[in-house]
Amino acid sequence: MTVVKSTLSESARQVVGEALQGTLVDLLGLSLIGKQAHWNIVGPRFRSIHLQLDEVVDTARTYADTVAERAATLGVPPDGRPETVATTAAPQGPKEGWVQDTEVVGVLVEALETTIGLLRERITATAEPDPVTQDLLIGLTAELEKHRWMFQAEDWPRRA
Amino acid sequence: MTVVKSTLSESARQVVGEALQGTLVDLLGLSLIGKQAHWNIVGPRFRSIHLQLDEVVDTARTYADTVAERAATLGVPPDGRPETVATTAAPQGPKEGWVQDTEVVGVLVEALETTIGLLRERITATAEPDPVTQDLLIGLTAELEKHRWMFQAEDWPRRA
Amino acid sequence: MTVVKSTLSESARQVVGEALQGTLVDLLGLSLIGKQAHWNIVGPRFRSIHLQLDEVVDTARTYADTVAERAATLGVPPDGRPETVATTAAPQGPKEGWVQDTEVVGVLVEALETTIGLLRERITATAEPDPVTQDLLIGLTAELEKHRWMFQAEDWPRRA
Amino acid sequence: MTVVKSTLSESARQVVGEALQGTLVDLLGLSLIGKQAHWNIVGPRFRSIHLQLDEVVDTARTYADTVAERAATLGVPPDGRPETVATTAAPQGPKEGWVQDTEVVGVLVEALETTIGLLRERITATAEPDPVTQDLLIGLTAELEKHRWMFQAEDWPRRA
Amino acid sequence: MTVVKSTLSESARQVVGEALQGTLVDLLGLSLIGKQAHWNIVGPRFRSIHLQLDEVVDTARTYADTVAERAATLGVPPDGRPETVATTAAPQGPKEGWVQDTEVVGVLVEALETTIGLLRERITATAEPDPVTQDLLIGLTAELEKHRWMFQAEDWPRRA
Amino acid sequence: MTVVKSTLSESARQVVGEALQGTLVDLLGLSLIGKQAHWNIVGPRFRSIHLQLDEVVDTARTYADTVAERAATLGVPPDGRPETVATTAAPQGPKEGWVQDTEVVGVLVEALETTIGLLRERITATAEPDPVTQDLLIGLTAELEKHRWMFQAEDWPRRA
Amino acid sequence: MTVVKSTLSESARQVVGEALQGTLVDLLGLSLIGKQAHWNIVGPRFRSIHLQLDEVVDTARTYADTVAERAATLGVPPDGRPETVATTAAPQGPKEGWVQDTEVVGVLVEALETTIGLLRERITATAEPDPVTQDLLIGLTAELEKHRWMFQAEDWPRRA
Amino acid sequence: MTVVKSTLSESARQVVGEALQGTLVDLLGLSLIGKQAHWNIVGPRFRSIHLQLDEVVDTARTYADTVAERAATLGVPPDGRPETVATTAAPQGPKEGWVQDTEVVGVLVEALETTIGLLRERITATAEPDPVTQDLLIGLTAELEKHRWMFQAEDWPRRA
Amino acid sequence: MTVVKSTLSESARQVVGEALQGTLVDLLGLSLIGKQAHWNIVGPRFRSIHLQLDEVVDTARTYADTVAERAATLGVPPDGRPETVATTAAPQGPKEGWVQDTEVVGVLVEALETTIGLLRERITATAEPDPVTQDLLIGLTAELEKHRWMFQAEDWPRRA
Amino acid sequence: MTVVKSTLSESARQVVGEALQGTLVDLLGLSLIGKQAHWNIVGPRFRSIHLQLDEVVDTARTYADTVAERAATLGVPPDGRPETVATTAAPQGPKEGWVQDTEVVGVLVEALETTIGLLRERITATAEPDPVTQDLLIGLTAELEKHRWMFQAEDWPRRA
Amino acid sequence: MTVVKSTLSESARQVVGEALQGTLVDLLGLSLIGKQAHWNIVGPRFRSIHLQLDEVVDTARTYADTVAERAATLGVPPDGRPETVATTAAPQGPKEGWVQDTEVVGVLVEALETTIGLLRERITATAEPDPVTQDLLIGLTAELEKHRWMFQAEDWPRRA
Amino acid sequence: MTVVKSTLSESARQVVGEALQGTLVDLLGLSLIGKQAHWNIVGPRFRSIHLQLDEVVDTARTYADTVAERAATLGVPPDGRPETVATTAAPQGPKEGWVQDTEVVGVLVEALETTIGLLRERITATAEPDPVTQDLLIGLTAELEKHRWMFQAEDWPRRA
Asked: CB pairs below 8 Å between D and E: how many?
């Protein structure tokens, strides 16, 4: 007897479950990366970017919750344990120790780009099996792309 | 030239820095564990514990931020990267997949107990080198001990 | 001369109008069922489920309003009169009189399942004629499926 | 063994229970009627009456909850199922389809009048057996009579 | 010269003063009982009832204030001193030490029943001498009876 | 054809209408008296009584509105024009010009006493013809008697 | 010895005192007129104008307080007693009894016009003796002229 | 080197960029038209429509911001300069000077219809190149169609 | 098997448990004393002290809850039953009946002094066995000493 | 028959009307310029200035509304149509496309300077014909001059 | 090259700059004086005046900020350093140590009088060179004169 | 007879009194320094640091109040008069006139460092005589050290 029965067919459940699990660890990774930069940033733009990073963390945390509960809703137990995040999250954060503000901007642009790239694929993959999940991923992508624009806009003129 | 100069002597800085770094990863671990249980719990007490877990996560997240910024304040760059959390956090969470409600209660009691045990040692260790940090750890211990009480109270009569 | 002119073609208007009218009565039915259980539930889990039911009623009432106004917007006068709800709403509620808490959980899982099943069909049906209405139904389905998960999670281990 | 024991004598419980059950269905009927008019009204006074109707619905919903919980409190399981509302609610709503604003005003004056008339009888009936319930019905009557005044005031000069 | 002159005749003042003084100590007793249970409850339903008890305490404290000020208003100095509460309050609380959750429910049902029983008598006694005080007692009874219903509903199936 | 039809019989309407009209002008008078004292008070207790008077004005204004709309609701057009207030309101205010704080206290005790005395009669008069209006007057009396207590309590030891 | 010493010369105090006293009674009159119309209005535009009138009353009450306290501040005890308002306020209100909505609009346009006309004179009169008072009167005039515009705009096409 | 790099292919970027730029100017135009009518409307329905217009302006301003930032996010610098709005916005507003209320309703129905018609085309055009932008346009269309319904509902019976 | 296991050694638990239990009854006593004075105070300073007493009651109630839950957290079931408060609370309240304002000030200074004196001893006693509890008692002492200062400041020049 | 009658003489109305119409278009222009820069700014100071620009837009929008309604109040129908803004607004915005942050600062300093220069003239022009309008323009100038200071302060050391 | 360019002519800038600098130090002085009295006051009126003083401090701090930023806006760097306040602020505070409540009232009346006297001169001085600054000083004077009235009203009957 | 009796021994009172008085003037000095920089800062980072400085001022003002009231509580009248602040506060502020943003950062780092250095000594000094005061100083130090970190972090790479 299944614990939580899915409203999807088994094959649809598998595709959508993978998309959600992948998104979950990317968002948890992003929330840890954002905080790491929030604490270790130094440089004249410290205060502005310190605050901006918390807005990325807010998006990541809020959507991580929504995405994980969507997985559970479809009968897929989500996995957000520390070891799973450490080994499977795609976006890369800053190295250990203090980080210069200009470098933080670059790290965030890339971490967001990685996450968005994977999300775009998942939007395509879930369109047919579950438009409800797709809609959730579309909303998340809109927010992350906006964050990416802001970091990119303040990365100009760009470091060669 | 040091990036952020400490208001403590070098030896005090080291002791306090270790206490804070240890506390930081334990709290980040606890926040991931709490969410993992929040998403995967099943059983008749689902709703009540589901909500209770988010209060633990709130405490863990808020204090993780305070603890990490305290480390930075003392000239110790905090390390809260996914891999550091995965390899050094002390509290243990639930296994992968759905978890029965009674089991969640037990997991939380133990995870909190582990974290509190280490905090009690750090309160002693920081008393002399930095009473400001000690006060922060005392406040955190008060909150976590209260959470432990609540889970323990609803764990009665206890499973043999 | 038409009272409210539709922005859709006549055939699209008919398909979408039916989907919205069907959803409206199901939601009004669900809101009455949820309240009936909210008032008549007894048993040790009374308080937790009593509160949970009001969250279902909130979803049902809020979306009933949105769905009915969407119908009016498309030139289809919505019908939410008591007799229409009584005779055409799909989800089934509890019988008259006090209801045991465990039974309430089962009734809700089924009532939500019936409603969601019909919504999944309407999402498909409205995709082409009116993506605006489809988006509304997708948002509603996401909320109802989350409610269903919660009742199902607390319905474990399930009654044989 | 009774599920919820009444604080009233059996004969008092019966009289008061009938008064509350009658009021419950009238209020649920009124809330559906109010929404039906809210969605289907047309005419130059659309916006003002559209908003005013939601205030009637608010009163009806809030008091339906209070009335039903009062019945349960007295050991009388309330019945607010769709079929009960459809067959036993006294106030009459508008016909299906768009309704002209002036007609809505007339329908509301009459629906409120019917409900108030029955409430006045129930205030008398409950005075002796349960002054606590009577006080609740008095408070409700005050609100509904105020709504009736407002609709009547804007119904002047009256249609012959 | 009287300190605060009553707006009632001397005989009315005496009847009403006794009703208010009796209600005051019962409510103060109830607020201490509710807190005692709130702190000492154990068992799987700990969290839900722990929260529910605070709602009883809120009602008791708010009305104790209103009742005492009503007495003062009528020229009757209210007596809510610890020794008066200990010796004259009617409702009985739990014994010293931890209390099992199921037992707490029973204790509250009874404590509320005792308080309500006396209030019903005071409603009758004050009707003629002071309808203003009677109205206050009616409002209080409505709230306490609702609390009693909730505890009773979750006390089902009842312990033999 | 009557503008606003009453839900009361003609004789009941007359009794209740008079009670409400009398209360309306007393409250409007009280609100002007309260403000007059609020502006003209002098003496060491200025600030405390200045604030206290605005609470009396709040009660008077809020209930004046409720009372007038209750009259309209019953088909009795309320009369709160300046000349009607000046010639028919019962409570007496301070004389023109600055007023000593101790005197303000005495003026308020008396103005409230006058108003309450008339209200007590109206509570009796409306009991039978309209319990809904009676309930409103009871609520108002409770508030005004509380204000009177406070002024009287600070009027001790009393001026001979 | 003067109770409250003015910061103005005696002649300035007199001119400004008269301007403020005149404004005070006009505003108190306006607040009573506004409420009288708020309660007695009938006709299809009842609800919209009923709400609009309360905004006029808000302006009148708030500024009456400011104006009276400004007088006191300058050593001029303000006179807002019922009889003073009845005999000296300039704006004229509606006659006793129900008033048709269209007539209310006309009454308000005229009452506001009268008040504004006098205020314009007082702005000129206070410019030299006390620019602080003048600034207050300018702010009040801005608000009243805005109210007048709104009533005038809805009075079009105008009754011949 | 591009200032803000798009996450879309160049051809997709072009199609979506045009859709967003067109929507931006239409919304800025609509916000100016809405305010123009808000200020110049006269007639008995002035107040109700005056308030309703500000809700249209709110929608237009909020979405103009979202749409413009979405364009920037995709690497397309948005153009909302006065001259661009004046020359390229599609919806037509009222003529200069006072406008009768009935005419305002007609102007708004048409301005909204024009904007919605173009949005429906853009929803189709963006479906394939960028579902994230499409979702934004769908949400906007839902809001504008609701506004159109309300103006149309109060435009009945319609001017021949 | 212990119900709630302490994080302290048995000897530490005993010392800290006594300190917390003693503080609990003192605070509950203080909250009843504060209310008793709040209701029975008379004299020209009635209003100011009446309000001030509620701030003492707020402190007492809030900390009573924190202190009792800290005891439970350490495995010590707190005892706040009416009879325990009546027989073991240290601070003394006013006698029965009306109390003159100047006397209330003196009673409060002394009741606070008694409570603070015992707290100072408990701060010393808990320093070593449980710095977490000590920190709680320090925070409480800070608040009570501030209340004592305020009553003492308004007790000057002091009664011989 | 005039639609909205002015409280000013015809000549005063003309002078004041021109001042208000000129201010209106300048503010609408400023709000569009501010948004254009808000969306197109790039460079390291992106985030800080992006937020700052929205505060300018808030001032511009709020005062545009006040200024336009003041014109209507004086019988002058305001003209804020897109074409009027495009052709008559004085302040100049940035060119099309991305704008470097340092350049945005310069553009804003100048746009504000232009607007303030004209406002200073209008303050002089309206002093005599309408001090009420003058007061409004003074308040607006204070806000715009503060914005100009802030942009100028961050424009230092200035570009040669 | 000037840091912040003034919108005033050089001579106007000088006059207005002096008025603002003088006002700034007076307000900073007043805020320190108000707090000094707030902390050191003793006597039966302690609580009421303690609270009242914080309202004076609020006014002083809020306007100090506005006045200093107005100076900067006009190109005049404001000077609010401790030594400047100590040597140039006009109002005089209480002597060191505890101060009797009656004495505090007198000190405040005088400190406010001194500040207002200078402000009245500055209102005259700035009228021509900068009506924007004058308007700010008028608003400040209105608030300070109101504070002065309140202290003066409670200073009656006055100490010989 | 002492005005406010201390709960400390005379020698403890002296040590703690000095620590509090020293902290008070440092905080008042810091609040004036912070505002001076807030008003006079210029340079590209103007806006960000302008806002950051107000957060320092908030901390300084809030703790100045707490520290001064703690002194009064212990029977030590606090001295925060302008001349005392000017002559005894330890932290040094910026020179008169505009200050470049980079220089402001340096000034704040040093002013905070001076204040924190003295606080660290006072934490040691008060530990034994009054742990309640020590706890207050620990809380303050935590906040100021956090501010110092933020200014230091944005001061990197540091000026040689």
From this structure: 39
